[in-house]
Amino acid sequence: MDLVQQVVANLEVETGQAEKGVGAILMALRMTVDKATFEKVRAAVPNHESYMGRALMSGARTGEMIGVAGPAALMAGLSAAGFRKEDVPRLGRIVMEHLRSSLGNDTVERFLDGAPALKG
Questions:
Q1: HSE-up of residue 30 (Cα within 13 Å, Cβ side)
Q2: Cα–Cα distance measured from residue 1 to residue 18, given in angstroms and rounded to the nearest whole number
Q3: What is the Cα–Cα distance from 4 to 61, expressed in whole angstroms?
Q4: What range does the domain containing 54 cover?
Q5: Is 33 left (phi over 0), alpha (psi -120 to 50) or beta?
Q6: Residue 51, CA atoms < 13 Å, CB-side half-sphere
Q7: Taking 70 as the threshold, does the pLDDT of residue 65 lie above it?
Q8: How far apart are CA 113 and CA 119, in angstroms?
Q9: Do residues 82 and 18 lie in contact, with contact meaning Cβ atoms separated by under 8 Å?
Q10: I want to staple 77 with a disulfide (CB 3.0 to 4.6 A). Which of 13, 24, 108, 118 is the partner?
Q11: DSSP 60-89
Q12: For residue 71, how far is the Cα from the chain centroid?
């Protein structure tokens, strides 16, 4: 089961909403890791660029903030994508656990430390 399907199944959201949520998290992650580290996302999430684009489109101005502010604007981006505050930690767990084997524990934990909305 791919990442978006996991989000759809666990959070009972539509595919488009799941793609936007995954994209918002990946955009914030891109702002916090170096290029070589983010390249590992390509193998773990083959459609990552599409998801990030969907997140930008869903948020309009809010989406632009994620790209500039990274994790600090993540909650606004996820809200714009239609995620309720109480669902954000579960979304974060699903996405980051999917990426953990590619990025490593240290990278995932460092990102989560900077994005407290994903921790709950």
A1: 17
A2: 14
A3: 24
A4: 3-118
A5: beta
A6: 27
A7: no
A8: 8
A9: no
A10: 24
A11: THHHHHHHHHGGGGHHHHHHHTT--GGGHH
A12: 10
pTM over 0.85: yes
Are 9 and 1 contacting, i.e. CB atoms less than 8 angstroms apart? Answer: yes
Rounded Cα–Cα distance for residues 112 and 85 (Å) = 16
Written as one letter, the residue type at 27 is M
Task: Tell me phi and psi for residue 83, to 5 degrees.
Answer: -90, 135
Other C-beta atoms lying within 10 Å of the C-beta of residue 9? 12
Q: What is the C-alpha to C-alpha distance for residues 41 and 31, in angstroms, rounded to an integer?
A: 13
Residue 1 — pLDDT band, cuts 50, 70, 90?
confident
DSSP 119: T
Region 4-21: mean pLDDT is 96
Q: Which amino acid is at 10?
A: N
Tell me the two tokens of residue 63: 């989406």
Residues whose CB is less than 8 angstroms from the CB of residue 4 and which lie 6 or more positions away in sequence, other chains included: 15, 18, 19, 22, 47, 51
Q: How many domains does the chain have?
A: 1
For tokens 């791919």, what's the residue? Answer: 2
Average pLDDT over residues 31-50: 93
